[in-house]
Hints:
Elements lengths: L1 E5 L4 H12 L3 E6 L8 E2 L5 H11 L3 E4 L9 H19 L2 E7 L21 H16 L4 E5 L2 E2 L6 H10 L6 E3 L3 E2 L2 E2 H11 L7 E4 L6 E2 H11 L8 E3 L17 H6 L7 H6 L1
Parallel strand pairs: 1-2, 1-4, 2-3, 4-5, 5-6, 6-11, 7-10, 8-13
Antiparallel strand pairs: 9-12
Helix pairs in contact: 1-6, 2-3, 3-4, 5-7
Bound molecules: NADP nicotinamide-adenine-dinucleotide phosphate.
NADP nicotinamide-adenine-dinucleotide phosphate binds next to helix 1, helix 3 and strand 5.
Amino acid sequence: MKLLVTGGSGFLGSELVRQARAAGWDVAATYRTRPVTGAVPLDVTDEAAVEALVARLRPAVVVHTAYVLSGDALWPVTAEGAAAVARACARHGARLVHLSSDLVFDGGRGGYREADPPGPVIPYGEAKAAAERLVAAACPGALVVRTSLLLDGAGLGPQELRPLAAARGELEMGFFSDELRSPVSVRDLATAVLEAAPRAELAGPLHLAGADTVDRYELARLVCLRHGVDPAPLRATLAAGLPDPRPLDCSLDSSRAAALLTTRLRGIREVLAA
Ligand SMILES: NC(=O)c1ccc[n+]([C@@H]2O[C@H](COP(=O)([O-])OP(=O)(O)OC[C@H]3O[C@@H](n4cnc5c(N)ncnc54)[C@H](OP(=O)(O)O)[C@@H]3O)[C@@H](O)[C@H]2O)c1
């Protein structure tokens, strides 16, 4: 089966490419600024380029991971770029798996299920929520995977480098003890996405996040302990009361995925203890 991964140079995208190739998929991937062997350049803000690539490759499945988190490109890339990918998938009959985020929710209560309405409170969450709406409108059969903080577990992903640097005194930052998330292993997530990808009956939102809810300070401590670094220097801070409000509890309930998929999404305590 032919698979196209947008953002193949990214943390999740590169893991998807690795696992899909190992499983025998015919895999194509894209990058924007960090060239990857075998991947092709693509800027999703260039809709003609998105259309041309999908028309040329004719993938059966597109997994859209490409995005930016902030800045002037936030809306053009994260919201409108997702819509361009969805329109190209619809035109060429490709199955779309769109990667979304726990931060589409307002964080008021946590334990969010697929039927809960998005209510983003930060610009990134607004762009991802808009992307979900645009994707659903252009490509109603698309699967929209909402996930949480991505960790490598054994190695060092972006979410692991910062706590280690802070604990070693190389980075001055605090970690929110009142912001709750459902971190997930990037490997578990990629396996689950590839299991769900060919199953066209799975459409709309699906939560694929880790089984443990932890605050960001506890997560930082767990990362340090996993890598043999003393977590004592880590500083806990509060997100509540910051001038720019943050969603406090965006933990996701992934029980629907547990019932639908064989891939187990481990809790982050288990991932980091392994
Ligand atoms: N990381 C997390 O903790 C987390 C949490 C929840 C949800 N998610 C979701 O998971 C997905 C993957 O996240 P990630 O952490 O793996 O991302 P990442 O490592 O930051 O990679 C982002 C990818 O997007 C590409 N990209 C950026 N701008 C682009 C553009 N204009 N056109 C085409 N491609 C562009 C980048 O290409 P270059 O690097 O080559 O420039 C890169 O391959 C995202 O959709 C994100 O919203 C992530």
